[in-house]
Amino acid sequence: MIIKSVTTREISVPLVRPFKTALRTVTSAESVIVRIETDDGLVGLGEATPTAVITGDTKGSILCAINDFLAPTIVGRDLFEFDGVLRDMNKAIYRNTSAKAAVDMALYDIYSQALGLPLYKLLGGAKKTIETDMTISLNDTKTMVADSLAAVGDGYRILKIKVGKGGAGDADAVREIRRAVGADIVLRVDANQGWSVRDAIRAIGAMEDAGLDIELVEQPVAARDLAGLKAVTASVRTDILADEAVFTPEDAVTIIRERAADLINIKLMKTGGIYNALRICAIAESFDVKCMMGCMLETKLAVSAAAHLACGRGIITMADLDGPGMATFDPYTGGPVFNGADIFMPEANGIGISL
Predict the structure, then answer these.
(1) Exposed / middle / buried, residue 69 (Cβ in 10 Å: 0-12, 13-18, 19+)
(2) What is the pTM of this model?
(3) In 10 A of CB 44, how many CB atoms?
(4) Chain CA centroid to CA 139, Å
(5) Of 100, 121, 160, 267, which one is the catalytic site residue?
(6) Whether 270 is catalytic
(7) Which of 110, 185, 289, 340 would disulfide-bridge 155, Cβ 3.0–4.6 Å?
(8) Which residues are CB-contacts of 28 (< 8 A; sequence separation ≥ 6)?
């Protein structure tokens, strides 16, 4: 089965409301879609999202990486030399993880189709459904409370609250949200690298002292500040989730070895796709470090690939896959069923999605 062609197209999906974090404000999901076809007519789809402030990737760099480096490396190759195709694709250009993720998930889509399996079963089949949180964007406290109540009204049981710009005010915002939604809703906090070490310890300590029962705090300090991340983790009782600090399997080893965080957030746009994400899962499994499956405000295609991985591996116990719930429309057919907070795996082969 020979890989015949790799083509790209661009799509834009407006969001229901602006998505705001300590790093950026986004009003639409902008993506590059990859379509890979084999000589016997199988088609696989993948998606890359430009998130320059996190991955360094732009739409232009994604298109260049795919068309000029990744596609020439895999066209003409035998799909069933799967490991070699993926290794060579990853070596074709340095970094450019979003572009690699799109090609990677399209290859996994075709490969699982060729084997007659839904992708989540190929990846391990640990579970058939997973529950996602809903992100509450960084706004004034009144707006964040209203957005939290709306999400709970829509059936979301887990909220991820964006903070990182308000200093002591961040803890106050979380306190008001907890008061509004009640004790039964799970709250996660994500600072997106927005705090200093001192502010992180103070803010998390204030939330602990107030009894806000926060499940975890995600990436409280700068991604490359490993010593700072370690200091925060050692100074608080709340679990710390490493996100932007973990792109590669080597990053995961460092985080675990240094005890710099309690948990790891895996995102396909950071890892360069499923191939390297599985390596991170294997490392985490070896040390019993639980993982979250996250996304970069992607459309349903990339989020579906991530959901397949989340359901494939048992070490992934948490999901932040709310991108489709923020979109004004779904440009695809098929794939996992996103029913509010619950994501159900399809029995169709591959990712199960078509444009």
Answers:
(1) middle
(2) 0.96
(3) 26
(4) 22
(5) 267
(6) no
(7) 340
(8) 12, 13, 14, 15
Confidence at residue 21, expressed as pLDDT on a 0 to 100 scale: 87
Give residue 341's Cα distance to chain centre. 15
Give the CA distances from residue 291 to residues 230, 241, 285, 307, in Å, rounded to whole numbers and listed in that order: 18, 9, 9, 13
Query: Is 75 in contact with 260 (CB distance < 8 Å)?
Result: no
pLDDT tens digits along 15-71: 988 888 878 888 888 999 999 999 999 999 999 999 999 999 999 999 999 999 999
DSSP string of 154-165, one letter each residue: TT--EEEEE-SS
267 catalytic per annotation: yes
Please say whether the beta carbons of 1 and 80 come within 8 A.
yes
Q: pLDDT per residue over 3-15, tens digit each? A: 999 999 999 999 9
Q: Maximum distance among all alpha carbons in the chain?
A: 62
List pLDDT tens digits, range 205-242: 999 999 999 999 999 999 999 999 999 999 999 999 99
CA distance 331 to 212: 39
Q: Is residue 276 packed enough to be buried (19+ CB in 10 Å), middle (13-18) or exposed (0-12)?
A: buried
Place of tokens 């189709």: 113
Give the pair of three-digit tokens for residue 42. 């199988």
Q: What number of CA atoms fall less than 13 Å from residue 1's CA on the CB side?
A: 19
